[in-house]
Amino acid sequence: xxxxxxxxxxxxxxxxxxxxxxxxxxxxxxxxxxxxxxxxxxxxxxxxxxxxxxxxxxxxxxxxxxxxxxxxxxxxxxxxxxxxxxxxxxxxxxxxxxxxxxxxxxxxxxxxxxxxxxxxxxxxxxxxxxxxxxxxxxxxxxxxxxxxxxxxxxxxxxxxxxxxxxxxxxxxxxxxxxxxxxxxxxxxxxxxxxxxxxxxxxxxxxxxxxxxxxxxxxxxxxxxxxxxxxxxxxxxxxxxxxxxxxxxxxxxxxxxxxxxxxxxxxxxxxxxxxxxxxxxxxxxxxxxxxxxxxxxxxxxxxxxxxxxxxxxxxxxxxxxxxxxxxxxxxxxxxxxxxxxxxxxxxxxxxxxxxxxxxxxxxxxxxxxxxxxxxxxxxxxxxxxxxxxxxxxxxxxxxxxxxxxxxxxxxxxxxxxxxxxxxxxxxxxxxxxxxxxxxxxxxxxxxxxxxxxxxxxxxxxxxxxxxxxxxxxxxxxxxxxxxxxxxxxxxxxxxxxxxxxxxxxxxxxxxxxxxxxxxxxxxxxxxxxxxxxxxxxxxxxxxxxxxxxxxxxxxxxxxxxxxxxxxxx
Length: 568
What we know:
Layout: E1 5-8, H1 13-23, H2 27-35, H3 41-48, H4 64-77, E2 80-85, H5 89-105, E3 111-114, H6 127-135, E4 138-144, H7 151-159, E5 163-167, E6 181-183, H8 199-213, H9 219-222, H10 225-234, H11 241-256, H12 260-269, H13 277-294, H14 298-305, H15 309-342, E7 353-356, H16 365-376, E8 380-386, E9 389-395, H17 402-407, E10 415-418, E11 422-427, H18 432-446, E12 455-458, E13 460-461, H19 469-476, E14 490-497, E15 502-504, E16 508-515, E17 518-524, H20 531-535, E18 540-551, E19 554-566
Parallel strand pairs: 1-12, 2-3, 2-4, 4-5, 5-6, 7-8, 13-14, 17-19
Antiparallel strand pairs: 8-9, 9-11, 10-11, 14-16, 14-18, 15-16, 16-17, 18-19
Helix pairs in contact: 1-2, 4-8, 5-8, 5-10, 5-14, 8-10, 10-11, 10-13, 12-15, 13-15, 14-15, 15-16
């Protein structure tokens, strides 16, 4: 097994000590809070006790007044309104929220929604979508989680008498689309204080503003918080500020009074306990995403807006089936890609991975790229045939800008887009070999050697005796976890194998370790290859998450081991 780099974060000792005195909690946890910008009692109160009253005024968002006025004008004139969204979790939930709100407070027969087909139309506003709007008499389109880069198509729609309100969170280009209103905290001159909302979050702020203008109770907007939380969790936006408030209360609603679609997916996923954000990310979101990956994302939105639980469950079962197909497909392609890599001796010295087979399913190539990074830890691109062209998805390792690397190959491409860690691209079939060669050259010249070794970010060193039930209770209050507020990772140094550690199911290790007179059990998944280190009976350093294990009705703290090595 590859030895990972350990990066143990430091903290300001004076600020840590002051916060510990103020909060009367463990200095270890206070060190982590200080690392995350929480330095005062007031900041800690906002962090540990989120409040919906702390949500920002939606009217601070640039163009919000224009967007609300245009929608109310559509209401008065009985115009037909089309809700247009992306085919992923963020887009599907955003569509469901906006469609449900409009049909509850306008005329249902004058509202519909459109989600482009991932494989036939691609990402964003589509020509087919605009044709649908024109053919069916829609004069106002509200786009969600897309539209900020669709300058030409929104211009075309305007020529056809169709106006757009764009709700998006992606970084704008220098030229903005000619929409009647653009809601995007990242656009120039937008005074909205929080810039990291997901697409569904931006749509939610429009719903909040409409609710206020229509003198509706807060519950008319807050009823969608479980869908907003699902989008926030799935879209990997920072779990800080307003996102943390939305996720906290959305998760509460998902557990207490969920949208029937969430309820159905929870049942089909086999989730029996109270859901955490991790359940939304790893159980609920993949099933929603699977609709667009394998077939048509429209049924994901239909599941959330269905009139009866029976209808909801029918759509949920389709998504569940799509997800099962997705798993089988991406596993098969991953294994086939791994065999291609293993069978090519020239690949061993490369710093990038590019694999191509024309028959691979376009909907899962991004997942396959991520799985290959888990194995080989190189910037990775997986290509497949899409009509007359070659299309693919790129994923990167921590610290390397894969979008910029692809940008350096742009003369070989028809199109590309994305961000630091993920991107998509298309090219002519005859350019595949040249692209593979160029991409490897660019990566080799620009990537630092250290970035090819996986890094574990460790929040704090601690002793096993510190890991008490009260410590764990406060740790749980740091939920919901996500980017910029990740679940804390700890290291305990110079612990000893207690003697009963063993390999289970041929690939995992069941740990039992001691430090002083304290013994902890734990589990390390896919770590059997490192078991001989334990058998040396020398002191080891162990990296872990702290979690609760329930067995036969009893709850005990245990270590979820991430890595370990012999102590220095």
